[in-house]
């Protein structure tokens, strides 16, 4: 007799990118930031490792919410902080979707956690394929196509998208949000590397939440801090069902200090964006077809060998990139933009594999 719920036995869990134990690998597979947190963030976090570890942290991450509210010109009641944005995406599924009745809608390919959250919640996946160029369809196109559900209880939009890297215009997202009846979550995990962001829609519409994370742009994957901005009513519903102490104390300290150090991080965004464009050009000269990216990674179709073979050959040269098995992207490699030194090593390895 199984003691596990039947639908969990069949569930395919989320597969995170590899965190290798072997030393000396250049890690370009999980979109981490190549630059360390600001020295002030490191100092503040280290200074917080004292007798306080005995105590529970602030249950609502109040100090951080106040800072984030100021940053985005909203009130603290418009902000909820989570143990990574992944936690909040899961809470949203639980808060806004009636299991067994409602559907969760998203484009494919996009963030591969959404189907897993839908399955865990025993609700219906409503997947709508993006066009061949991975651009965001217009509302008229979605209406014509008839597959999009404008009444979906919950819609996730990864913007800029992952794994395509494709940036979406705020005006187009605005039109889409306006047309939706249910809750829309604009997952802006990579937005700091894009030309524009859609934060204004979180205050314009009371059914829109914008999701952000400190993981990618703010070099804090290890601390697990993400947040949503949106109407007080939606935030309150999420707040009701989160764990009392969902955000660890050191993470709160690190993130609060991060928000005070924006010039340091903005300089890093500029470096990563510049290197992304340069790498795209250098790879193009070697026969790689790279999609335009508004993120800290590129999705690129490699020449000569299958993408899977490239994954192995690069790994033999101690470079770890991501190959995703989804049929729409299986001919591509997803490569995180690392440091100057790491990208130079990538190019050397590519040239060696191509023997040029
Ligand atoms: C689109 C997208 N959203 C959210 C996340 C999760 O970020 P966090 O580290 O805040 O949980 C990721 C991480 O890979 C992502 O790619």
Query: Looking at CATH, which topology of the largest domain would you report?
Result: Aspartate Aminotransferase, domain 2
Please estimate the helix content: 25-40%
CATH architecture of the largest domain: 3-Layer(aba) Sandwich
* CATH class assignment of the largest domain: Alpha Beta
User: What would you call the shape?
Assistant: globular
- Largest sheet: spatial strand order: 2-8-7-6-5-3-4
Number of strands: 12
The H-and-E topology, N to C, reads as: HEHHEHEHEHEHEHEEHHHEEHEEH
Structure class:
alpha/beta
Could you tell me the radius of gyration in angstroms?
A: 21 Å
How much strand? 5-15%
Number of domains: 2
Oligomer state equals single chain
**pLDDT < 50 stretches:** none
Count of alpha and pi helical runs: 13
Give the biggest beta sheet. Answer: 7 strands, mixed
Which ligands appear in the coordinates?
A: pyridoxal-5'-phosphate
Overall mean pLDDT: 97
Q: Identify the CATH homologous superfamily of the largest domain.
A: Type I PLP-dependent aspartate aminotransferase-like (Major domain)
Distance between the termini: 60 Å
Description:
This protein has 356 residues and is an alpha/beta fold. Helices cover 38% and strands 15% of the residues. It has 13 helices and 12 strands. A 7-stranded mixed sheet has the order 2-8-7-6-5-3-4, sandwiched between helices. The protein has a 3-stranded antiparallel sheet with strand order 9-10-12. Strands 1-11 form a two-stranded parallel ribbon. Helix 4 (85-96) crosses helix 5 (113-120). It starts with 5 loop residues before the first helix and ends with a helix. 43% of the residues are buried. The protein binds pyridoxal-5'-phosphate. Pyridoxal-5'-phosphate binds next to helix 4.
